[in-house]
Design goal:
By secondary structure, this protein is an all-alpha fold. Helix content is 88%, strand content 0%. Helix 1 (2-18) packs antiparallel against helix 2. It starts with a helix and ends with a helix.
Amino acid sequence: MLRWAFLFLIIALIAGIFGFFGIVEAATSIAKIVFFIFLILFIVSLLTGRRA
């Protein structure tokens, strides 16, 4: 999941260099959402994994 966040971040940076502002906004918003989902799932797995 973290790879997807970095992938969309790189897409946003490349699109920003070339001036595609609509793609930049979409890619950065997707990257933020995927990154926060990754953080939530990571914290949940840390909390539940320790109780084995």
